[in-house]
Amino acid sequence: MGSITTKDGDGAVTTIRANCPSCGDVQLTADDLTVRVCADDERGSYCFRCPECLGAVAKEASRRIVDLLVSSGVRMQVWRLPAELSESRVGAPLTPDDLLDFHLLLTSDSWFEQLATEVRRSLNR
Ligand SMILES: [Zn+2]
User: Fold this and answer.
1) Which member of 15, 36, 61, 115 has the greatest number of CB atoms within 10 A?
2) What is the pLDDT of residues 83-98, one digit of tens each?
3) Do 66 and 98 lie in a common domain?
4) Residues 76 and 114 in one domain
5) In this predicted model, what pLDDT tens digit does every residue of 98-111 receive, in sequence order?
6) Cα four-point dihedral sign 70, 71, 75, 76
7) Which domain holds residue 45?
8) Which residues are CB-neighbours of 93 under 8 A, at least 6 positions away?
């Protein structure tokens, strides 16, 4: 993880050395990287496209690395976990049979009404 180092170049350009799994250490500038921080749990990561093999590289980043990269001029994106994660789940998990039933249900014109009736019935159980 902690394979990021930065070095101030001659001008205003900071060289950032990061590690590509295929190529090893590669030299980047702030524009080449993106830092992503999750607003919900504050986990950080950074990603870049390797200048040598053009592969996409993404790594977890500690707070220290995030601060280091942001202070070097790397743009930061804040993202949120999908809202689905906090939804409450009731009932048994779907099975392949359920999926097949649903598929067949969708072939009828009144599928929505039938589905609504089923849902109402299951909630009143
Ligand atoms: Zn590479």
Assistant:
1) 61
2) 988 888 888 889 999 9
3) no
4) no
5) 999 999 999 999 99
6) positive
7) 5-81
8) none
How many angstroms is it from 102 CA to the middle of ligand 1? 45
Residue after which a domain boundary falls, among 49, 64, 81 = 81
Sequence-ordered list of residues with C-beta below 8 angstroms from that of 92, at least 6 positions apart, any chain: none
Domain count, the chain: 2
Single pTM value for the model: 0.64
Residue 110 Cα to ligand 1 middle (Å): 54
- Please report how many Cα atoms fall inside a 13 Å half-sphere around the Cα of residue 25, on the Cβ side: 8
Please list all protein residues whose beta carbon sits less than 5 angstroms from ligand 1, which is an ion: 20, 22-23, 50, 52-53
Residue identified by tokens 């070097």 is: 72
> Looking at the structure, do residues 72 and 116 belong to the same domain, yes or no?
no
